Structures are given as structure tokens and as C-alpha cells.
Amino acid sequence: MMKTGDLAKIANISLRTLRYYDKIGLLKPSQIAPNGYRQYNEEDLIRLQKILLLKKLGFSLEEIEGMLLEKDPSWIDSLKEQIGLVDQKIQYFQLLKETIRKTIEIVERNGMSVEKTVQLLEIISKDDQLVEQYKNSKNLHVRIRLHHLYSTNPIDWFSWLKEQIDFSKGYRILELGVGNGDLWIEPKVDLRNREIFLSDISEGMLEDAKKRLSDDFSFMQIDAQNIPFKKDFFDLVIANHVLFYLNDLSKGLNEIYRVLKKGGVFYASSYSKSHMKEITDLAKEFDSRIQLSQNVLPDVFGKENGEKLLGSFFSQVERKDYNDTLVIDQAKPIVDYIISCHGNQNEILSGHIREFYQFVEDKIKAQGAITVTKEACLFIAKK
Fold first, then answer.
1. What are 24-34's pLDDT values in tens digits?
2. What is the DSSP track for 151-186?
3. Residue 161 and residue 320: Cα distance in Å, rounded?
4. Tens of pLDDT, residues 61-88
5. Domains located in the chain, CATH noted
6. Residue 377 in 3-state DSSP?
7. Region for residue 73 given its phi and psi (left: phi exceeds 0; alpha: psi -120 to 50; beta: otherwise)
8. Are 364 and 331 in contact (CB under 8 A)?
9. Cβ count near 133 (within 10 Å)
10. Residue 284 to residue 290: CA distance in whole angstroms
11. Dihedral pair phi/psi, residue 346, rounded to 5°
């Protein structure tokens, strides 16, 4: 066992920092001796190492608290995850170093140019984007994993989705919002003699998809509201749980309609207002101020209004429903899911994540499991 001073010395941090971590619940001592001395063990030291590295990589203490929620983390898995984060930082600094070197050469020959200054500023700003991209990727993985682990429907969402899409006449295909590329793992289509463009507005998501998929695909960073292709170009366009994130839905639909050929098909998925409602209710029961999304996404584009919205652009619109239930008997996946959402939950739960974790655990113990409704759908729109 180590006293506070011993742990601070080993980790090369101040006593004040360690006491602050104790105060906010980020790193509590394993035990407190009868004389009041706080004592830490090897597991506490391991936890502190991860805290310090994640802080060095740019994460806030609130975000780190959520990332360390698991009671019995695998140290090997933890280290592997940290290697991925460090690799991203190394790539960034290598790019920055090379840009500075080239800038020095240009300045020595011709003086500093506005163009080179702007380029350097853009690269410097990417350091802040790395952490944001990692969070986006991790959050998507958390949400998908919850469905993989606890769905009761024997046919998972992506398998069902692949069965609904008619790839037979799709020789030029565009997916908007590819995420981590799950739709194209074990594709239902022969990739030969086809041009398949996978896009996302997030550079980090696009990098994730590239790592998982083959060179048979073309990857592009695209905003669905401004698609850089000519009119009547694609046979199929796919937007899986994407449209409700657009700032201007009409502009996005107009762009999708424009790039589709006559007779082309647009596949757009969404969900109902009741989808995952039990998760929202659980969060609000803990604190009524929590909003898991800045907007009510199905109000923007959902099961209830999607057909009408698409009908303003497309001649034929059909809806197919996918229903499922999650039966969740562990607290951590629920808490991780809630933390991963796009609302104000992290701000409100800051400093209270352990308390919230215990709240969810108590609910599961009382009920045996938490049952969650899934009501997703796919709209098939023909031009």
C-alpha cells in the first residue's frame, strides 16, 4: 500500500492534484487507515496512469471519469486503446514537423506567404480535432455495441438492412454517413465492376471505415447538404440514420435527388419517437434536466413523418419497419450509451457519474433487467 505522498512521488504529480482527484471522486484511495491516512494500491496506480495519459491527450476530467467507469478494466485492453490515441498524436506531430520544415525552406527563399501561413494554422488546429474525432468514433462504437450485445431480434439491424437494399442494379453507389463501415462488412453485393463511394462529414469516422474495409471502396469527406457530384450520377444513395442530423434537411434531400439517376433509389433509415424511450426516461428520472439530444431527432426526420418529407421530392416512397427489444442486465453499457449521446448529459452528470452508475445498478437489481423498445424503419424512395 502507498500513502498519498508516496503515490504523488511515483506519478510525479503534486499532492494538491492527488487530493483534488480524491475530492471529485476520480481517484479514491482503496482504504483509509484508522489514523486517517489515505492508502492506495497497485490498481489505483494503474488508474492514475490512465488518468494522466488521457489528460495529456486533451480529455477533460469529466470525460475521463466516464471513460474509467468500468469496475474491472482489462489493463491490456486499456494500454492498447492508449496506443491508438498516441499513434494519432504522433502522426499529427510528424505532419506538423514536416510542414514547419517546408515553411522554413520557403521563407528562406521567398519570405513568408499568406498561403503558407494559412496552411500552417490549419494543421495546428488539427490537434484539437484529434480528441474530438476519437470521441465521435468511440461514441458510435458504444451505441452500436449496446445493440449487438442485448438485442432479442435474431436478425441484427445491419443484416436486415442489407436484405432490404436491392444492390442488383446499383453500379454507382453513394453512402452518406458511413460511420465505421458496418454496412460493408461482408457485403451482399459483388464489388467487381461497381463504383462505391463511402462518405462521412467526420474525418475521424472516415479513417475508421478505411481501416476496416478494403480498397474496393472510394472514401470521401462529404457534407450531405453539398454533394460534390454531377446531376444524375448514382444508381443508389444510402443514408443510414443520417438525415435527422442535417442542419437543412430540404437542402440535403434536394442534393440527394439531384445526384440520383432517373429511376435511382434512395434508402434512408430512421426511428420512431418511442425508440429507446426507456433509456431517455431512465436518465430523466435521475435528473429531469438531462436531454440526450439537442433536438428530438424523429421530429426532424422519423418514422412518423419521413414518408411525407420524402414524398415532396420522390415519386414513390415505401416504408419497412424493423422492431426489436433490448434486454439489458448490466449497468455499464447503459451508462456508456447515455454518456455517448449528443445532449447535455455529460455537463449535468459531471461529478455524479458514479452516483448515476449506482442508480442504474439499483434499477437493474430491482427489475432483473431493463427492457428497451427499438422501433427503427427504412424508407425506400424512387426517383
1. 888 889 888 88
2. B-SSS-HHHHHHHHS--TT-SEEEEE--TT-GGGSS
3. 10
4. 877 777 776 554 555 665 666 676 677 6
5. 2-56 (1.10.1660.10), 75-150 (no CATH)
6. strand
7. beta
8. yes
9. 19
10. 6
11. -70, -35
